[in-house]
Amino acid sequence: MLAGATTASAQQPVPPPAAPTPPLERDGVVAPGHDGLLGLRQPGDQVRLSNETTVTRWTNAIRRSVVRARPSGGARRITRLRLESASASAEVYGVLRGRVDGGGRTWLQVRLPGRPNGRVGWALADAFDKLHLVRTQLVINRSTLRATFYRRGRKLWRAPVGVGKTSTPTPRGHFFIDRKEGAIFGRVYGTNVFFTTALSNLPSWPGGGVVGMHGTNQPGLVPGRPSHGCIRVHNRDIKRLARLMPVGTPLLIR
Known about the structure:
There is one protein chain. This protein has two domains: about 30-135, SH3 type barrels, CATH 2.30.30; about 135-254, L,D-transpeptidase catalytic domain-like, CATH 2.40.440.10. A hairpin with an 8-residue loop joins strand 3 (about 65-70) and strand 4. It has four helices and 17 strands. The chain has helices at about 10, 35, 205-210, 235-245; strands at about 45-50, 55-60, 65-70, 75-80, 95-100, 105-110, 120-125, 130-135, 135-140, 145-150, 155-165, 175-180, 195-200, 210-215, 225, 230-235, 250-254. The termini are far apart. It has an eight-stranded mixed beta barrel with strand order 9-10-11-16-14-13-12-17. Strands 1, 2, 5, 6, 7 and 8 form a six-stranded antiparallel sheet that branches. A two-stranded antiparallel ribbon has the order 3-4. Helix content is about 10%, strand content about 35%. The relative contact order is 0.16. The longest helix is centred in the C-terminal third of the chain and has 10 residues, at about 235-245. By secondary structure, the chain is mainly β.
């Protein structure tokens, strides 16, 4: 031992005990990250992680794991996770539920971007990055031609929209905002562009037919049904929405 050294027990304070795992709340809210999920400890344990209105969790994939129809390694294979979205950003997966299988492995049920719209599936939790929490929701009503943005269930923004024409409709369903940009395509698409996980019926279009929400240089077409599936908004309205709405916001198109 070096001169003047003391034993570790005399020199170093005893570290405090680890903080307990935050308790699981029965409204479906858990702490961010997989440690928060792991009130799921026993086979068969499960929890709802998102209601897609006031509490939504989303994540990105970190490996191209197999997605299955049920939380079991023997279940039917649906697809593989993607690391990059059709809009060239990290793919956003809305996380619906968590479950522990009979072997003690934790699975996440996620909304699956890609064709066909509307699929869900299960993948092992270790294939995903940390979980993010948002308390926002964007609703597009194709009948009334109105968009409404909520935070914690409270209406914060409302505006008229243009949606797809009859031959190229804006798809109905549950989706997510996966990328936000400014005026990257020039005046035609207005001051802001949001990319979504929805796909139109035009797979030959750039990005495989990604449905965007964007401003416009033709404000007289809003409200209306002028588009190939995208959602058009007056520039003054979408600029305000861009300040309010985070990536990962669930999008409901009615």
